[in-house]
Design goal:
alpha+beta, 2 domains, four-stranded antiparallel β-sheet, two-stranded antiparallel sheet, 5 helices, about 30% helix
Length: about 210
């Protein structure tokens, strides 16, 4: 692992999403300072980086009661040609814009200018492009797929409690109202538990799922 010495605090890029209709299919790509003493280049999504990103995001989401999902973190320091180099979030934004990725504009929110209509893989490719000295992405590097499903707090609680229950039993009752997202949450339990055969019976249809 590479080490460095600097009088400046290292920084990191973070990517997160908000699970509501207004922020659908867009991601926030920001930057913050790593307050911890760190002399190593940490790998992406390291616990230290994630904690720093959460602290920063909480500053402008917690008071508004906004639930978000942190998707990716990466230090802005990296080695290139045996030299320590850095980049910033504005360079990542520039790659996305030059690649034809549109910004998500929120007219009523001042300063909300770091939201882009792209998926996580495209955002990560833009970060890699900056590190490689590229100004934009190739058409084949831009994905049209959906971002990861972001479960609401009550859904995450149901999923986690069910997985714990399945360690000691085979039954779990969800007393959930309509529109809770029971089918989607159940499929997430199936995926995490790696069940090979599943039948989900709903009031509309019978869905079967094999081999996740």
């Amino acid at each position: 692992m590479a080490t460095f010495e600097s009088s400046l605090k290292p920084r990191l890029i973070y990517v997160f999403a908000i699970n509501d209709e207004r922020h659908k299919d867009c991601l926030k790509i920001g930057e913050t300072t790593l307050e911890e003493d760190c002399t190593n280049i940490l790998p992406p999504n390291d616990a230290v980086l994630n904690a720093a990103a959460h602290r920063r995001i909480d500053q402008y989401t917690k008071t508004a009661g906004i639930d978000y999902q942190l998707l990716y973190t990466e230090m802005t320091l990296f080695l290139k040609d045996m030299k320590l180099t850095s980049f910033n979030d504005k360079e990542v934004h520039s790659v996305l814009i030059r690649s034809g990725i549109k910004k998500k504009v929120f007219d009523t929110v001042k300063g909300a200018n770091e939201w882009f209509c792209c998926d996580l893989e495209t955002a990560k490719k833009a970060i890699s492009a900056v590190k490689e000295g590229k100004k934009s992405l190739l058409p084949g590097e831009i994905r049209d797929s959906q971002n990861p499903i972001i479960f609401r707090p009550e859904q995450r609680t149901a999923i986690e409690k069910t997985m714990k229950q399945f360690l000691k039993g085979s039954q779990m009752l969800w007393n959930a109202k309509m529109r809770f997202g029971k089918t989607l949450s159940a499929l997430e339990v199936v995926k995490r538990c790696e069940f090979r055969r599943t039948i989900i019976v709903t009031h509309r249809a019978i869905q079967t799922r094999k081999r996740f």
